[in-house]
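Table S2 (text version). Query chain:
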Amino acid sequence: MADLHSFRDEVMALTALPPDVELLLSDLAVGWEGVMPELPALTVLPMMERRELVALPRGGDGLRRITFPGRLHALISSQRTPEEIRAGHGRLLARTVTLLPEGGRLWQLPVAETYLWHQLIWHLAGHDRAAAERLAGNPRWLAAKVRVCDVAALRADLAMFDTLEVGAARRAVDSVADQLDRRTCPDPVVRAALLLDALAGEPVLRAEAEHLRQELREEVPGRVAADLSYALVRVLPSPSYVKDVALSADGSWLVTASGHKASRIHDIADRSVRHVLGPTEGIHEVCAITPDGSRVITGDYDAARWWDAATGRLLRSVDGWTTELAVDPGGAWCATDTSPRPAVIDCTTYAVRRLGKKSDPRDPVSAMACSPDGRTVAVGDLNGRIRLWDPVSGARRGELPESPEPVHGLAFAPDGSWLAVSSRSGVRILGIPDGLERLRIAGSHRFAVGDGGRWLAVPGATVRIHRTDTGELLGEFTPDRGNVHEVRASPDGRFLATWRTGSAAVLVWDARRLVR
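Corresponding structure-token output:
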């Protein structure tokens, strides 16, 4: 490794990584963000791969991985003193502390920090083994971790120690391991409850486990959950920044449109990628799923494309700029912003029907939505106009009071009684068909309708949850650190997806757990 001498600090920093453990480079990049020396995953690891010291295979999902060889790890570690190794772990732990709420504990880590949830005990043991032993056997940590990670991650922590508490926790985990599998038990709260029941059967852990079970029962309804990990379903990595997300009706899979000029169908339970849709010539800007879940529709600057959801096969392309999509609730057609005027495309024949007349103003479309009965398409534009169209005839049904600002997002109530419209001045809820403003909520970004229309998730630096009948703020949460967030909901509002602008990871939430 003599030719890597100029990167000695970065190479030596690799001693903080766990050996013989498969790591996603995307998770590693997030976990080490801002840690000095410079992030190894983005500097020396590719150089070490070229010298055949490590392998960075790319899986079918497009994501790169590393399993740091134990013998190489031992060789590098032998060139460092115990104090230097301890300091390396300490730098990462110092960053971890900055992620916690004021006065927070380690089991209150942000749920998006996948790397830390999996590897925190390893780093803590390298810095303060006694503290790691206490945390590994703490029912609060165990209950939090089983909500975010799989049972194998719990076992990896517990295998490192042999204290009385850890032994009791190991027995409890082993007794319910099959029931804690994400595929058989996708609900994070049920997994936590199952584990707490098992922990309560161990005398040394009983008091704390019983206390936690009581806390679960006493959570206040009608507000955003205090502990987000109860509501988190999954963190899904992507090989590139995410542009748009569409959730299936049952919440078992989703589609991401990303900067890799492709969309991906993700299995939520095991984080796998079922199919890669593309690549195409242009970056995929939007995506949607037909109501029956059989097809995926993507849009880019060249075309709208239909894909078979079961096989990933391209079925049809319809040429034309497509950066907005709205799918008929019955699945018969979809509306697009295809120039020169917005259009409705038949999902069986792929025939294109333009909305309006050739003489109509060609205002740039910025948002679209379909009414629940499929009889109306709402189209918002950058000039603040909101027009309502008949998707069958292409005739204009009406126009709502315009906004003095560009329209950013549109969504109908599940019962069709109102239309929510976002612009820089906030989210307005307009009555249908009168167009009268019922209330206004602060927030300028594209929002999501949750829990059958009971509330709106309005993103920004945080995600705020407001009631749609009164506008009352039910609470806010920070899914991930920094920047502006994006949100999308499943068709029934049962699941919510959030991601940070420019991020390559999507968080999936159970909306009924997120807002009780």
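Notes on Table S2: The CA atoms of residues 341 and 358 lie 8 Å apart. The two ends are 55 Å apart (CA to CA).
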